[in-house]
Specification:
Blueprint: H1 3-15, E1 20-21, E2 24-25, E3 41-52, E4 55-66, E5 70-74, H2 81-88, E6 96-101, E7 105-106, H3 112-118, E8 120-123, H4 135-143, H5 149-154, H6 159-171, H7 187-199, E9 205-209, H8 217-230, E10 235-239, H9 243-249, E11 253-257, E12 260-265, H10 267-271, H11 274-281
Parallel strand pairs: 5-10, 5-11, 8-9, 9-10
Antiparallel strand pairs: 1-2, 3-4, 3-6, 6-7, 11-12
């Protein structure tokens, strides 16, 4: 079996059970357009409410993320963290409220793929990669604008595209694993690969759901270094429970409870907040 046939087979084997590529729809991905951040804010959620069978998952949620910011979101189970990300990415439509990407892009009016095209990437807790493909091929497949197998097999990479993949491999510390089948990577390395699959698409905003769950201490520390290196170039929203990891990241922390913002500030400030202690941290 030659390399092209192996590549095609791997893609076909993954097609039935994988609808997402690095958290983004595997349909045609346009290059992200310009986002108006003239007010220095990349994401606005204003008065967002979502109900499921009478349960209010989000309740008049108001949140703003600055361009280039690394924001951590914490809160007890059922606080609305996942629903919030579902609203931002178009998976769930709010009953009330507005959600803007920059000043002009109303996310509530767009489909999931259109939101991905606009420059929002989402990483779920469980890595979604093509395990039968090499690390390099995973990044190559994520980079290409047309995800049909025929195009992927026969389109040549430009020098700029190849350089982007090489630079991303170095950034996610997998440059020595480029030819290795992705399925043989450690759990932490698979997480890094999926992050790389998002980064090659130049997202303006990254949503990361418990990215260090299951990682070793060393992998967790390296992931923190990676995220901090991305700030300024990308905006990151990190949903996490690992307080040591959040402390490593620094920056502002938002605490959600019952679908609303309960507290906001640096980690020391929210950890000292009596309301946060009561509903989340415990005594």
């Amino acid at each position: 079996m030659n390399a092209a046939t192996s590549f095609a087979t791997a893609v076909a084997e993954n097609r039935h059970d994988q609808e997402w590529l690095g958290g983004i729809s595997t349909g045609h991905l346009a290059k992200p357009g310009e986002v108006d951040i003239s007010h220095k804010v990349i994401l606005y959620l204003e008065g967002i409410s979502v109900s499921f069978d009478g349960f209010k998952a989000l309740n008049n949620l108001n949140l703003a993320i600055d361009a280039g910011e690394l924001r951590c979101i914490i809160g007890p189970n059922g606080a609305g963290k996942t629903t919030m990300m579902d609203v931002i990415t178009g998976k769930t439509r709010p009953d009330e409220g507005r959600c803007f990407f920059g000043q002009t892009i109303d996310l509530t009016q767009l489909r999931e793929a259109e939101i991905a095209h606009a420059g929002i990437g989402r990483k779920f807790q469980k890595p979604t990669i093509f395990e039968n493909l090499s690390v390099f091929e995973n990044l190559e497949l994520a980079l290409k604008t047309d995800k049909r197998a025929r195009f992927s097999l026969f389109a040549w990479l430009s020098d700029d595209q190849r350089d982007k993949i090489v630079d991303t491999l170095k950034l996610i510390r997998l440059d020595h694993e480029a030819d290795r089948p992705a399925g043989l990577l450690s759990h932490g390395q698979k997480q890094w690969l999926e992050i790389g699959m998002l980064l090659v698409q130049d997202p303006k905003l990254l949503l990361l759901d418990e990215p260090v769950a299951g990682m070793t201490d060393d992998e967790t520390a390296r992931t923190g270094e990676l995220f901090k290196s991305l700030t300024g170039k990308h905006s990151l929203v990190v949903v996490e429970h690992d307080m040591a990891f959040i402390e490593q990241l620094g920056g502002k922390v938002t605490v959600l409870h019952e679908g609303s913002v309960l507290a906001e500030g640096d980690l020391a400030t929210v950890q000292a907040d009596e309301r946060v202690i009561e509903v989340y941290l415990g005594r």
